[in-house]
Structure formats: C-alpha cells, structure tokens
Amino acid sequence: MKGYWKPALLILGFVSFVYAFTTIETEIFQLQNEISTKYGSEMNFYKFLKLPKLQQSNSKEITKNLRKLSKKYHPDKNPKYRKLYERLNLATQILSNSSNRKIYDYYLLNGFPNYDFHKGGFYFTRVKPKTWFVLAFIWIVINIGQYIISIIQYRSQRSRIENFIDQCKQQDNTNGLGVKQLTFKQNEEDEGKNLVVRFSDVYVMEPDGSETLISPDTLDKPSVKKCWFWKIPASIWNITLGRFVSDTEEEEILKDNKKFDGEHVKKGNTVKRRSAKKGQKKMELPNGKVIYSRK
Ligand SMILES: *[C@@H]1O[C@H](CO)[C@@H](O)[C@H](O)[C@H]1NC(C)=O
After folding, report:
1. Longest dimension (CA), the chain
2. What percent of the chain has pLDDT above 90?
3. Which of 49, 89, 156, 246 counts the highest number of beta carbons within 10 A?
4. How far is the CA of 97 from the centre of ligand 1 (A)?
5. Which sequence spans correspond to the domains of the chain?
6. 207-246, pLDDT tens digit by residue?
7. What does the alpha-carbon distance between residue 280 and residue 295 come to, in Å, rounded to a whole number?
8. Which long-range contacts (CB under 8 A, 24 or more apart) does 130-137 make?
9. 1-35 b/e with 16+ CB inside 10 Å = b?
10. How far is the CA of 52 from the centre of ligand 1 (A)?
11. Burial (CB count <10 Å: 0-12, 13-18, 19+), residue 173
12. What is the DSSP code (8-state) at residue 22?
C-alpha cells in the first residue's frame, strides 16, 4: 500500500492548481484590500464609487457614475487624486463587466481572502466550502479504492496459498494419515525447498530444522483500520494525545488476540506461538505463481 501516496499527492496538487486564483480575482482582492485598509473593513466597491443605488445599480449606471466622479477626481484637476482615480476607474471596470461583477459579489458575500506578504499572496483563513467538499470526496474515493485493492490482493494471495497446499496434498500418498516429505523445485538447477505434509498440514522445513506452517489464515486480513481513513488519524492520535493516555484494557485484549492469531511454530519439540506480525516468506510455484508463507 506504500505507493499510494504518490497518486494522492498528484490529485491534491491538481485540486490546489484548479483552485488557484485567476488574474481578475487577484486584481479584485488587491483593490478590495487597498480600500478596506484605507476606509475600513466595511468598505466595498459600491460604497467606494458612491453609487446612489449601491448593489442595485446596473452596469450602465456604474459607467455613467464614473463620468460624474471624474469631474471631481480626475488627476488633470488635481494630481493628488491620481491614485484615487486609478482605483475608481478599476472598480468601475470590474463592476461594469457582468462576469467580473459576479466574481466580486461572490467574495463580497462569502468573504475575501487575506493578504500575507510572507506567504506570497492571498490566502483563505477558511477554505471555501466547495474545496472542502472536493477534498473530502477525493479522500473517500481513495480510501474506498485502497480498501477494495486490499481485499482483491488478500483473496488472490489466499487462493494461491490454498492452491499450493492442494498441490502438496495431491502428492501425499498417506491420505492425510501420516508424514510425507516433498521437495519443491522451481527448476532443475534449483536446490529446492523441503516440504512436509503432516496429517494434512503442509510445513516448510527451514535450513535450521524448524518447520513453518503454510496456511492462508496467516495472511493479514484486509481491514478498514489499515486504510488511511483510520491509520492517519490514529497515528496522529498516537504521536500527540495518545502518548499521554495509558493503554486501555481494550488494547490489552487486542494484543492478546493477536498473539492467539499467531501461528504455531514448531522448533524441535517445543511449540511456540508467534505474533502474526512477523515478515512473510515468498515462494514461487512451478507455474510462476508466488505464494507467501510465514517464517
Ligand atoms: C469581462 O471580462 C472578461 C475577463 O476579464 C472578458 O473576457 C470579457 O470579454 C469581459 N466582458 C465584457 C462584456 O466586456
């Protein structure tokens, strides 16, 4: 599952790209930022242009209004009005264009982003609800996909192991009543693996003489708890608040269960239980299939 962060980052990157501000948005934010810094946070383009009907004005009235304002504030009349006139002109340009006016009205209603020089531009202290919705949707899709893939992988690994056990049992002429030694080779030069079928259970003989049971039950079962959906909040909890909270009884029970799930490892005459978390052993079948067993 480790490789999944790459496509996820790609998707997140794409989403932030889609939500980057356009030139006109940046222009709007800049002007709004300037006039609200100068005239107070309640200032908006409609008030700034002193439109008699404010937001009820149509684009013709807005253009006409600029002509009226320029009689008073044109820089030709007084050079000190140069900056003010530039702003009046730009606000008029934005509001007299219906599509740009829609953009302005949207932010006027939902709030403008803040400007932070250190962050290199405008940013939202609160993300647009639409963005949250898109991110949540992608997050859910990724997690469902991850869970489905883990189920598919689990099933195919399980059936490979079951097939392998079946193949071994077919070689067992004691009919599951005795002990049958087998050698598993991938090709002629292969040294081979020694297998034992003991009362219908198939074991791999390790070079050190110990035996490992081959069983599909030793595979980790797919679980929602292994998806990011659960794992990321869980690991955040573990490295923050979880550190200060001692193990609960429930966790102890889980640990015990895990021990119980562990397979029986025969070493000489002593039977040990090992945690199911131990590494998997890879083995290739004659037909090219790969099976996994536990060490
Ligand atoms: C409004 O502005 C946009 C982009 O700034 C431009 O593409 C469009 O042609 C303008 N519409 C009118 C009617 O001027």
Report:
1. 111
2. 31
3. 49
4. 6
5. 22-112, 248-295
6. 888 888 888 888 888 888 888 778 888 888 888 777 776 5
7. 6
8. 131/15, 131/19, 134/15, 135/12, 135/15
9. eeeeeeeeeeeeeeeeeeeeeeeebebbbebbebb
10. 25
11. exposed
12. P
Residue type, 30: Q
Rounded to an integer, what distance in angstroms lies between the CA atom of residue 111 and that of residue 236? 31
3-state secondary structure of 268: coil
For residue 88, CA distances in Å to 11, 48, 82, 100, 270 come to 41, 8, 10, 15, 90
Alpha carbon distance 246, 40 (integer Å): 52
165 Cα: distance to centroid of ligand 1 (angstroms)? 71
Contacts for 144-152 with beta carbons within 8 Å, 24 or more apart? 146/1, 146/4, 146/227, 146/228, 146/229, 147/222, 147/224, 147/227, 149/1, 150/1, 150/222, 150/226, 150/227, 151/222
CATH number of 22-112: 1.10.287.110
The token pair at 246 is 């001692």
pLDDT digits (tens, 9 = 90+) for 131-168: 778 888 888 899 899 899 999 999 999 999 999 888 88
Mutate to test the pocket of ligand 1, among 60, 63, 97 (most ligand atoms within 8 A of CB): 97
Quick: pLDDT tens for 168-217: 888 888 877 888 888 887 777 777 788 888 888 889 888 888 888 888 88
Q: Quote the tokens at residue 121.
A: 């531009």
Best of 100, 101, 104 to mutate for ligand 1, by most ligand atoms within 8 A of CB? 100
Amino acid at 241: L
CB-defined site of ligand 1, < 6 Å: 24, 97, 99-100
Angle between helices 23-39 and 82-96 (to 10 degrees): 130
Report the Cα 11 to chain-centroid distance in Å: 9
Q: Residue 283 Cα, ligand 1 centroid: separation in angstroms?
A: 66
Residue ID of nearest Cα to ligand 1 atom 10: 97
Q: How far is 32 from 204, CA to CA, in rounded Å? A: 74
